[in-house]
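Case study 2.
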Amino acid sequence: MRKLWIRGTFKGLLSGTFLGLFLKMIEISTGIKVYTLLLNVDYFPILKNYHFPELIEFGFHLIISVVVAFSLLFIIKKYRWNGTQIIVRTLFITFSIGFLLYPTTALSDRTPELTSLPAIFFWLLGHLLYGLLLSSLFIKKGNSY
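Prediction:
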């Protein structure tokens, strides 16, 4: 279990950092607030009363990414997913997470409009790329985890 935590932490930090940098570059180059949405905690009743520095907000994001990576690794190992299952299911899960989280943009005035098609596109693309990177980190030389 210890090895699983270590692997989940590493893979979660790496893929979470990638997602953050990808969305930050989109926001810088287009002005679409998808990175702001990634770091947004306005929908948490207690946290919305505080203004956290970007580094702390990014840390919150990385914690979630580590939890996602560890959880997927645990499931992969328990159910012995093969390489194709790892890729398809990880992409589906990370896309679904992005899809389910996007509506939280309506709970903040700092994030994109709920109906912004470019924001939805970049947000979901980022989560697909995150899933692709994460699944590729799960697969090593024919072995999964």
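Helices lie at 2-30, 34-39, 54-79, 83-101, 117-138.
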